[in-house]
Amino acid sequence: MAATRDGNRTGECKGKKPNRSCPICGKPADFATRPFCSKRCADVDLYRWLGGAYVVPASNEKETGAHGAERQPASEVPEA
């Protein structure tokens, strides 16, 4: 990665405010706790994940393998 104008190799500018706001309360995000504004909002988000408030939708279709082939349950796999 090339160094930025201020010599920072991480691509982040020191002292500037992040462009995004906290997803929990909407205040400007703090660089140390980004994307949140504080440790409290980060903990609120973690509690929501652990409590099941956030859910990744699952598909009821048959599962497919890495190459698109249908997977069979272990009980239906033919023996070699």
Describe the structure.
The protein is an all-alpha fold and 80 residues long. It has a domain of 38 residues. It is 16% helix and 0% strand. The chain has one helix and no strands. The protein is elongated, with a radius of gyration of 22 Å. It starts with 38 loop residues before the first helix and ends in a 29-residue tail after the last helix.
Question: Which helices and strands appear, and what pairs or packs with what?
Answer:
Layout: H1 39-51
Quick rundown:
The protein has 80 residues and is mainly alpha-helical. It is built from 1 helix and no strands.
Average pLDDT, rounded to a whole number, is 74
> How widely separated are the two ends?
50 Å
Query: How many β-strand stretches?
Result: 0
Low-confidence stretches: none
Specify the structural class.
Answer: mainly alpha
Number of helices in the DSSP assignment: 1
Please state roughly what percent of the residues sit in beta strands, choosing from under 5%, 5-15%, 15-25%, 25-35%, 35-45% or over 45%: under 5%
Which percent bin holds the helix content? 10-25%
What is the gyration radius calculated from CA atoms?
A: 22 Å
How would you sum up the global shape?
elongated
Order of helices and strands: H
- What summary fits the major beta sheet? none
